[in-house]
Amino acid sequence: MRPKHVVESQQFTVPLLLQLFERSAQMEKLVARGGTLDYQDRIMATLFYEPSTRTRFSFESAMYRLGGKVLSTEQARVFSSEVEGEQLEDTIRIISGFADVIVLRHNEAGGARRAAQVSSVPIINAGDGKGGQHPTQALLDLYTIHRERRSLDGLSIAIVGDLDQGRTVRSLAYLLSKFERVKIFFVSPPEVRMKQDILQHLDEHEVWYAIESDIAKVLGEVDVVYQTRIRPERVSDRKSIASYGITAKVLHAMRPNAMVLHPLPRTVEIDKAVDDDPRALYFKQAKNGLFVRMALLTLVLEEE
Amino acid sequence: MRPKHVVESQQFTVPLLLQLFERSAQMEKLVARGGTLDYQDRIMATLFYEPSTRTRFSFESAMYRLGGKVLSTEQARVFSSEVEGEQLEDTIRIISGFADVIVLRHNEAGGARRAAQVSSVPIINAGDGKGGQHPTQALLDLYTIHRERRSLDGLSIAIVGDLDQGRTVRSLAYLLSKFERVKIFFVSPPEVRMKQDILQHLDEHEVWYAIESDIAKVLGEVDVVYQTRIRPERVSDRKSIASYGITAKVLHAMRPNAMVLHPLPRTVEIDKAVDDDPRALYFKQAKNGLFVRMALLTLVLEEE
Amino acid sequence: MRPKHVVESQQFTVPLLLQLFERSAQMEKLVARGGTLDYQDRIMATLFYEPSTRTRFSFESAMYRLGGKVLSTEQARVFSSEVEGEQLEDTIRIISGFADVIVLRHNEAGGARRAAQVSSVPIINAGDGKGGQHPTQALLDLYTIHRERRSLDGLSIAIVGDLDQGRTVRSLAYLLSKFERVKIFFVSPPEVRMKQDILQHLDEHEVWYAIESDIAKVLGEVDVVYQTRIRPERVSDRKSIASYGITAKVLHAMRPNAMVLHPLPRTVEIDKAVDDDPRALYFKQAKNGLFVRMALLTLVLEEE
Question: Which of B140, B263, C154, C304 is the most exposed place for a label (fewest CB within 10 A)?
Answer without folding.
Answer: C304
